[in-house]
Amino acid sequence: MSSSSGVDLSEECLEFFQDLKLKKKYKYILYKLDDSYKSIVLEKAVEEATYDDFVSELTSSGPRYAVYDFDYEKPGEGQRSKIAFYSWIPDDSKVKDKMLYASSKDAIRKRLVGVAIEIQGTDLSEVSYEAVLEKASRSN
Amino acid sequence: MSTYGGDEVSAIVLDVGSCWTRAGYAGEDTPKAVFPTSYGYIEEEKEIPPDPDTQMEDVIPTSENKPVKSVEKRYIIGDTGVAAWRENMEIKNPLVDGLIQDWDALEKIWDYAFDKSLRIDPKEHPIFVTECAWNTRDIRERLTELAFEKYNSLAFYVAKNPVLSAFAAGRPTAVVMDCGASSTSCVPVVDGYVLKKGIYKQPIAGDFLSEQLLQLLQQKFDINVVPHYMIAKKTSVDPDQPANVEFKERPNTTGSYHKFMQMRIMQEFKESVCQVSEVTYNHSSINTRPMKYFEFPDGFNTSNGSLRFSVPEILFDPRFITQPQDGPNFDTSALLGIPQMIHQSIGVCDIDVRPNLLNNIILTGATTLLPGFADRVNHELSSMNPGPKIKLYAAGNTIERKCSSWLGGSILSSLGTFHQLWISRKEYDDYGRGIVEKKCDN
């Protein structure tokens, strides 16, 4: 079973993820649940953006899942890049949305092979550049 | 909002908690029915008529041939039922430590929920039930059996309270601190699964505080807590003056009923008077806090000072427990304060997941609604874990706080996609009750 809610993932979600991971075609991808709450679908894939652009886009609407190609400088070792996965479920969401997004996370997260950092975000501080950088530096 | 399969019947969600049972339809925001899990029963002796096939002349009149008497239990379920005084009615709770012990009574509770509260035929609905994190395999299998064998339900599912609470808070990974009536528990949930080794629980929660209050009021302040059912007439009296009350004739009242009704008053007392010290308990600063007034059902009224802080303090420091005058002492050495429970529960988890758990601590259960509760947990945890970020989540909405697992179950089981997760009648018939371990593996 893919997730606790039975919600599934549309195949196109994976295709876009592969393009971000292998071809570096996108900087970030946003996913959401479709209107019938049956599967996770692509909302948008963006080619060029800064981290601030991404965060403001992510946090401007309701709950989302997201993938961001996170670049950072590892002291003494140069430029690194890691794929970060976000479940963004802000505390002021409706309880139905919280339940749906939280219980369906595994449907997408388990299918995205190659994610190095996972962020569970409920407020801005948890998805800030510093918070993600800290996680990136801690993981290998 | 879109609706699912308008032609389908909705599931019934049942959450039998240690104090309250919540029952309602999947997809709704609040349970249709909330009634006490404690039930009343009266033992009635019934004579079994002699077997008509036995010829009288064959019977040698010995003491063994006297008419046989059997004791039958008459059950009384529901709020108005158990609270109303009846001669010889005992009050009991079918759960011990969150686990179902009394299956006959549980069936009566289900019957009551289906027939009286919701007025539905369980044959026509899927049934979704919640369970505590430490539920046993045998109990889950018996629940499955009950749903299919006795109630012939369409489908069945059982999910763990802390997982539902975590999802309802939008957090697949969290520590769920549940302080309800009978127990306080701390359960780490990671990606929607309970980490069993991290479960910490102890029987010090709302009911225990009520017992302590009752004991203290009687021992220390000589206040006899008289429940409503005993009172015929009362007149108002000045503060701290003895009650002026006429009693009702109440023959054959059981001790368990009297206690149950006293505990209800203590419940009210806690809700209107008690509070948790927001910072580490300090006797002299507590003494400067304003007193709070409470009027007992018999008209006696008084203002309460340090008591209203020192009793809830037990949750944070079990050394505040008042030992009983008669009977064995509580061993407080093995008990933990709530912040220590959270700390230890997180401490046994994998080091990688600890920061995420500390950052997602969910408070749920009615006792967490005591004013100052969340502030205090935050204060203590911050001083225990100076480095990492700590974030508590406590739903502002009291319904959400009291019924988070019911609500979570209601949303989950109303999803169209949840179909594939139910244990269907056919699966039960094919695989037997053991199927529950495989399908409900949260």
TrEMBL record, chain A:
<dbReference type="InterPro" id="IPR029006">
    <property type="entry name" value="ADF-H/Gelsolin-like_dom_sf"/>
</dbReference>
<dbReference type="InterPro" id="IPR017904">
    <property type="entry name" value="ADF/Cofilin"/>
</dbReference>
<dbReference type="InterPro" id="IPR002108">
    <property type="entry name" value="ADF-H"/>
</dbReference>
<feature type="domain" description="ADF-H">
    <location>
        <begin position="4"/>
        <end position="137"/>
    </location>
</feature>
<dbReference type="GO" id="GO:0015629">
    <property type="term" value="C:actin cytoskeleton"/>
</dbReference>
<dbReference type="GO" id="GO:0030042">
    <property type="term" value="P:actin filament depolymerization"/>
</dbReference>
<dbReference type="GO" id="GO:0016363">
    <property type="term" value="C:nuclear matrix"/>
</dbReference>
<protein>
    <recommendedName>
        <fullName>Cofilin</fullName>
    </recommendedName>
</protein>
<dbReference type="GO" id="GO:0003779">
    <property type="term" value="F:actin binding"/>
</dbReference>
<dbReference type="Pfam" id="PF00241">
    <property type="entry name" value="Cofilin_ADF"/>
</dbReference>
<keyword id="KW-0009">Actin-binding</keyword>
<comment type="similarity">
    <text>Belongs to the actin-binding proteins ADF family.</text>
</comment>
TrEMBL record, chain B:
<dbReference type="InterPro" id="IPR004001">
    <property type="entry name" value="Actin_CS"/>
</dbReference>
<dbReference type="InterPro" id="IPR004000">
    <property type="entry name" value="Actin"/>
</dbReference>
<protein>
    <submittedName>
        <fullName>Actin</fullName>
    </submittedName>
</protein>
<dbReference type="InterPro" id="IPR043129">
    <property type="entry name" value="ATPase_NBD"/>
</dbReference>
<dbReference type="Pfam" id="PF00022">
    <property type="entry name" value="Actin"/>
</dbReference>
<comment type="similarity">
    <text>Belongs to the actin family.</text>
</comment>
